[in-house]
Amino acid sequence: MTSYLMSLQPEKMSGTIKQQLDSITPALQEMRLRKEERVNQFRAVQGQIQKISAEIAGQSEYDDSITNVKVNENDLSLKKLEEYQNELQRLHNEKNNRLQQVEKYIAAVHNLSATLGMESSMIITKVHPSLNELCGISKNISDGILAKLNSTVESLQEEKQKRLEKLHQLGKALKNLWSLMDTSYGDRYLFSHVIDQLSVSSAEVSDPGSLTLDIIQQAEAEVKRLDQLKASKMKELFLKKQNELEEICNKSHMEIPSRSEMENILNLINTGEIDYAELLMSIDEQISRAKEEASSRKSIMEKVEKWILARDEERWLQEYSMDENRYSVSRGAHRNLRRAERARVTVNKIPALVDSLMAKTKSWEEERRKVFLYDEVPLLAMLEEYNLSRQEREEEKQRQRMKKVQSQVVVEQENFTTSRPSTSNRRLSNKSLNGGFGNASPLNRRLSLSIQQLGSNGKSSVALGTSFIKEGKKEQGKRIFPRPNFTSQLRDETASVVSTFSGPLSP
Fold first, then answer.
1. DSSP letter (8 states) at residue 85
2. How many CB atoms neighbour CB 266 within 10 A?
């Protein structure tokens, strides 16, 4: 292009001036057209730059006419044009980024508004009317609008977090109240959507209408209603749990909390001066401890029940043994006889049962470091007292048996002496009696034991005593005419009798 212009210089051209002008006129026209085209390119690029810059600057009204663009015609080089084009491209990229940010903010506003139950279009229009698609104008993407959108989104997120925390508080209050008052599943289901929000964070809540003011107000109303019912229901619930605790204690014969303490708690419930949650937590802990202790006492209580039943059978057997008509042929006597046989077996097992029970109780007390109480009485003391009383009863039975046998022996001796008319014979008999029975006192004691044992087996103790007296008479008669080995024979017979009736004692 430059070389072409140089060739058109007048000093290098021939001909007249007019001819020279006519020869360069087409080139000048072409140059003017190319300049005008280059200026229009600059104007278009600069116009786009001014327009986008105005949009970014937030100018709501901008004259789109490119005639207002001033182009520096002193520099229309391609390098300058390229610089303007690069600037335009940068502004285009910035505009697109801002539009994306605006769309992102608008989408966030829509989602948050739907979750909170708000009208998103009103919120967006309040930020700037151009952001509402219904307005039909280009969106304002200025820094101010982006800042307002960001602030709006943050405000909605804070409101969302605030409502979620409120709903969490209401949900926890509902769960506590439901637990306190044993609310039915149907009543709980109405507010299940509130309880479902307890385990989620703010970022996880996105369902439309999940955090509306209506839901929060309904939950608040339900909490308020349950609070009003709590005092009356709490008293009923406390009495129910108290009965549960007493039932556990009664079943295991454990100590029951004092009535005065329970009455004081009821008074506090009536006045509302007590934390119901702590109260129920406390009584639940007592119930848990009572169940655990009842479980630890189970094996001991089973043996205690067996011991009590055995004692009842022991008392019945004592009364039965004192009944003089127990061997009559009356109706039902055979059943009593069979029961007596079973009772003797049970009674014979009592000592071993008591020993085992005492060992288990001592082990329990050492492990727990406390006294095992049975209906507020130490169980070991009860068992020791029973052993002592049983020993005393046995000793008393032995004394009564001895007295009975001795009285029978005296009666038989008197009958024997009065039945002999001869004086010499009476003397001889008295001498024989003094020699025979005087040396047989150990034998009499053994006989008394055997008689009593036989008596428990259904034989007449009087008849048995008489038979042994007759044996004694025979021995006295034999002593008048002593025979060899008499002493050893009497010892063998006595041992035979004792061994025959040396079975277990019965009451």
1. H
2. 16
Same domain, 48 and 134: yes
Among candidate residues 156, 172, 196, the one where a domain is terminated = 156
Query: Got the DSSP string for 123-189?
Result: HHHHH-GGGSGGG-SPPP--HHHHHHHHHHHHHHHHHHHHHHHHHHHHHHHHHHHHHHHT--HHHHH
Q: Measuring CA to CA, which residue among 64, 61, 59 is closest to residue 145?
A: 59
Q: What is the 3-state secondary structure (H, E, C) of 19-50?
A: HHHHHHHHHHHHHHHHHHHHHHHHHHHHHHHH
How long a stretch of residues is the chain? Answer: 507
pLDDT by residue (tens digit) across 70-96? 888 788 888 888 998 999 999 999 999
Q: What six digits make up the tokens of 247?
A: 């039932």
Q: How far apart are CA 7 and CA 10, in angstroms?
A: 9
377 and 247 in a common domain: yes
* Burial group, residue 240, by CB count within 10 angstroms (0-12, 13-18, 19+): exposed
Residue 140: what pLDDT?
82
3-class state of residue 74 by DSSP: coil
Question: Average pLDDT for residues 299-311, to the nearest whole number?
Answer: 90
Q: Does an H or E element contain 497, and which?
A: helix 486-500
In the predicted model, what is the mean pLDDT of residues 451-476? Answer: 37
Q: What does the mean pLDDT of the chain come to?
A: 75
Question: Cα Rg for the chain, rounded, in angstroms?
Answer: 60
Is residue 391 in some structural domain? yes
Give the structural domain span for 360: 234-324+333-409
pTM for this one? 0.47
At 474, the amino acid letter reads K
- Three-state SS at 222: helix
d(CA 325, CA 10): 172
